[in-house]
C-alpha cells in the first residue's frame, strides 16, 4: 500500500519569515527599541533638554548616541569606583619588633651632598661678623675693629641715624614681617608709598615690590614669556636671570658678552625667520652693571637696536641703581636715556638702598599684569614693612641732597669721587699678577688674576659649561666640581686672609655655585666695595696692604709653580 506524498505550497512571504533577520533589520529593531526607552528620559526633570541636545548634535543617530553613552558610563564607573583591593595573600604583616628593626636600619638619603675635603675650606673662610655690618665691623678672632670693604651698602645709609630712627618706628608699630602676600593682607601703607617713590625717582609710570631680590627676575620674566617666545640674551648675565629664562621655557639666542655688534648680527639673522612666523613676544635681556664682571652695558646701542628690530628690552639694574647717574637713577641716567625707552626694569633694594627685596618699574598695564600673574607676588610674603620704609627714606635722602631735579646729588657725587680715586690708586699699586676687570664708575671693584699669569698657572679661560663655547647652548646638566676653580679661589682667599691679618682690612671675593651656573664663568675675583663714607686714607691703606699681601702669596707660587701644592694647603686650611 503506497503512502501518498503530501505537498505544501510555501509562499515567498513565509520563506522570508523563516529566514534569519539581516544585520540591517537587527540594527533597525535595536534602534527603535533604544529610541523607545530613550524617550522615557524626557519624563525626568531636565530630560527634554538632554533629548534635544542629542537630536541636534547627533542628527538622530541612535547608534552613535548609544556608543557615547557607553563611554560616558565607563568614565563615571572608572572615576567613582574604588581602587582595586590588594590581594590579601600578597600582603606581608610585620610584627612591631620587625618594624622597629627596619626603621633602625633605614638610612635616609641626604638632602644635600656632603662637603668634601676639597670644599671644607670654603666654609671655614667665611668671616663671622659680630654686631652691625657697617663701614667698620668686629670679626670673631680678630682684635679690634676692621675697615669693612666687604658689604654692598655703597651709600652707607645703614649707619645714617635718620634711617635707624624710621626703622625703629615702623618695627614698633608693624613688627618685622608682613605676614602674607600683597594681595592677601600683606600690603601696608609703607609698601604703597615705596612703590610711588620708586616710580617717581626712576621716572616710570608705576612700580611693584617683591619680597626677595633673587626671585624678582624669576617672577617677572615668566609672567610675560611662554614657550615659543624669543629672548636674545647677553651671555654674561647673572644666575637669577639664567634661572628665570629656564622657568619661562622661551627660545633663547645668546650674544657675546656686552658686544652690541654681535647682537646686531644675531638680530639681522633672526629677522627673515621671524618675518615668516606669526607675531610672538621678543625680548632683549641684559644688565646695567654686570654682576659677574663689573662692566657697564652699552645701553645706547642696545636701545637703538631694540627700536629698529621691534623688540622689548628687559634690564636688570640691581647693581647700578643708586650708583650711576647724577642722582643715582641707574645706567639709563648715566647715558641720559629716558626710562620710557626701557620696557621692563628690575632692581634690588639690598645694595645702595640699605634694605632688602626687589622691584620692577614700567608702564601701568605691565605692572597690573604682574599683580595677577607674577608667582612671587601672588604667593610669597610681602617685603617686611620696615624694609620698605628704609628704602623710601634712602630715596628721600638722595633727592633732598639736590637743589633741583637736574643737579647732581651730593650723596651720589661723594660716592663717585671716592670711587674714581680708588681706581686710580689701585691701578698704581697693584702687582703685575693682578688686574682690574670692572668699569671705573662701578664702586664694586673686581680684581682678578691677570690673564698671562692665569695661563702660567695653567688655569682655563672659562669654567663650567664648556659646551656653550662650541655649540652656543648652555649645558642641561650640572657642572662638575672643578679643581682649577677651587685652586684659583683659594689663591685669592690667601690674599684676603693676609690683608685681614696684617692690616685689619676686610675684603671679599666672588662666591659662585659653579655646579648651578648655566653659562661659562670667568675666573673668581677679589671684590672691593667702596662706600660713600670711605676716606682716601682708608683707600691708601687698602692699596698698600693688598700689594703687600699679594706679593707674599705670588712669591710662594713663583718659588714652587706646581699648583698641586695648593691642594695640600687648602686641605690643611
TrEMBL record:
GO terms for MF: pyridoxal phosphate binding; serine C-palmitoyltransferase activity
Enzyme class: transferase
Cofactor(s) for this UniProt protein: pyridoxal 5'-phosphate
Family of the protein in this entry: Belongs to the class-II pyridoxal-phosphate-dependent aminotransferase family.
Superkingdom field: Eukaryota
PANTHER family according to UniProt: CLASS II AMINOTRANSFERASE/8-AMINO-7-OXONONANOATE SYNTHASE, SERINE PALMITOYLTRANSFERASE 1
E.C. designation(s): 2.3.1.50
Keywords: Acyltransferase, Lipid metabolism, Pyridoxal phosphate, Sphingolipid metabolism, Transferase
Pfam families for this protein: Aminotran_1_2
Gene Ontology cellular component list: endoplasmic reticulum; membrane
Name used for this protein in its record: serine C-palmitoyltransferase
Pathway membership: Sphingolipid metabolism; Lipid metabolism; sphingolipid metabolism
Aminotransferase class I/classII large domain: residues covered: 146-398
UniProt-listed GO biological process terms: ceramide biosynthetic process; sphingosine biosynthetic process
